[in-house]
Amino acid sequence: AQPFDDESWYPVDQFILSGKPVIVFAGMWSVALNNLAYPEGDSFGKPAEPIKNQVVALPNDLAERMQAYGVRIDGSSMVADTSSNDKISIIYQPDQGPRVQANVNYPLLPRVNDLGGMKKFRGTLSGVTLPFPVEIHPVPERLGDATFTPLMRSSGNAVLLNNPQAEPGPLARQIRDAGKRSSRTLAAEVTGTLKSYFPPDKLPIDEQARMSHITEGDVQLLVIGSHMGLEGISVNQVVGSLDPQALQEDMGILFTKLRAADLYLQNWDFRIRQLFPVISDNMKFIHNILDWATIDPVLGRIGPKITRGPPLYSNIGSMKDIWTWGLIAGLPWLVWMFGFVGYVFRQNRNASRKEIFEAASGAG
Length: 364
Known about the structure:
- The protein has helices at residues 6-17, 61-66, 119-122, 140-143, 168-176, 235-239, 253-294, 297-306, 311-363, and strands at residues 21-25, 29-32, 36-37, 49-50, 54-57, 71-74, 78-81, 85-92, 100-112, 128-129, 135-138, 147-153, 158-161, 185-195, 216-224.
- By secondary structure, the protein is α+β, with helices and mostly antiparallel strands.
- Strands 1-15-14-12 form a four-stranded mixed β-sheet. Strands 8-9-10 form a three-stranded antiparallel β-sheet.
- Residues 298-317 have low confidence and may be disordered.
């Protein structure tokens, strides 16, 4: 996650005001679980060391900018739900004894089972897990006549944690002492007319471009207070400070940084597999959202009459049907053809052998 400057945000602002559907995944936290690392310096011959499970706050300038569109993202705290959450495999340090690995219910993975407000997005899903979410609020003074509609809420046993702990033990104690528990808004939709984030006298564009500036427009804005498990992976996060080109000058790097880089890769591989069940289910939900965002409104109204599911899955299902019936009808014919060709080839080969044998016998 990188902070936005005004120049990079301006095209986003104009796109939001253009009336096209916009989806915001507000991932405000990075949670590092079960990572390993080698000691600094020459790591040759030294064992890997476990990194303490930790929670890191990401740049939250997105939260500040979204307030201009009637949405306040509470990026300073994370929602933890004690009664409706998903499981995760985690290695952690209990209060007594060595570190253990277990499948535990993790309050930082709230699961929303009531998708009544998400009818046009949910498809056949019975629930959605939102990893490391934040709460979303309306900003009435910016909304004006626009509408803020909550779409997903946690259970009534959710709390806000200002400095969330990753380890299950400290996390449980933190939740116990958190105070008031209530239902929290985790996703919302904003529709209606809104003004631009940029005042007319502070546009980060040249005079010629100001002629096409949109000062206000009708918006279709969907804000989800979670990255849905889709964490950004950069080269540095995978290989650390390893520079492959440096291997040409110093082969000693093979014994120092390469082992650490391999460990980075193992960590990310483990991280992906750790959250894979959550990500797999969420991808179906994200596909439904992308279908809503990309399909033409007119086609969207007639779509349910011609397809049983979202276009992405319907196309995939149609291709599967074609392949299935093609194999059922064509495979026996192909087997017969190969058998027939083989039979003809063998007959020709036997005839050739017979002619050679008869010619040899006549010559003798």
